[in-house]
Amino acid sequence: MLRILGRMSSINVRKVLWTCDEIGLAYDREDWGNGYRPTGTPDFLALNPNGQVPVIQDEEGVLWESNAICRYLAGRHGRADLLPPGGRDRALVEQWMDWQASDLNVAWRHAFLGLVRLNPRFQDARMIEQSIEEWNRAMGILEGQLTATGAYAAGSAFTLADIVLGLSVHRWRMSPIPRPSSPALDAYYARLKERPAFQVHGSDSIP
């Protein structure tokens, strides 16, 4: 059985869990990190030298980095609907996945860690305000894309891009920040909430 190491409060762990549920994979999840088993131990660092969750282990071995794990699981189980096998269709899905992991994550970092996680290292009011502006600007990019497609991030069909972005939209909506009017994002979020796996791993009180 697939082994998943990581706590439920981690957005990156929930990406993997949502992917597993979309595919229909059974898994055994173990709580690691932030209040659970520490990820700085030699045993955990032997699995992921970065000391971060999630980590998965199956008969093929160990893998870390949440977006890479999602790609691996979709590819290994032949889910071309979630991750096209190649060409421009695949590149578009991976484009939005990579954007989520880079530009979008950088934008929300200071505001989220300061206002939601209450991390004492992220309490500079000016930096929080700047982060909110950058976060809303980034979400405006996604608003524009969803307006253009009228459905999902990479086009008319649900893909892995929507798993990683859907959880990011949920985080944005749950955080105590001012947000601009975003009708395309609102409609997108409503579509995602119709999916049983999102109801379990995304549409809850955990940002």
From TrEMBL:
UniProt cross-references to Pfam families, sorted A to Z: GST_C, GST_N
PROSITE patterns linked to this entry: GST_CTER, GST_NTER
CDD domains per record: GST_N_2 (cd03047)
InterPro entries, per the entry: Glutathione-S-Trfase_C-like (IPR010987), Glutathione-S-Trfase_C_sf (IPR036282), Glutathione_S-Trfase (IPR040079), Glutathione_S-Trfase_N (IPR004045), GST_C (IPR004046), Thioredoxin-like_sf (IPR036249)
Domain spans labelled GST C-terminal: 86-207
Domain GST N-terminal residue range list: 1-81
Family: Belongs to the GST superfamily.
Protein name: Glutathione S-transferase family protein
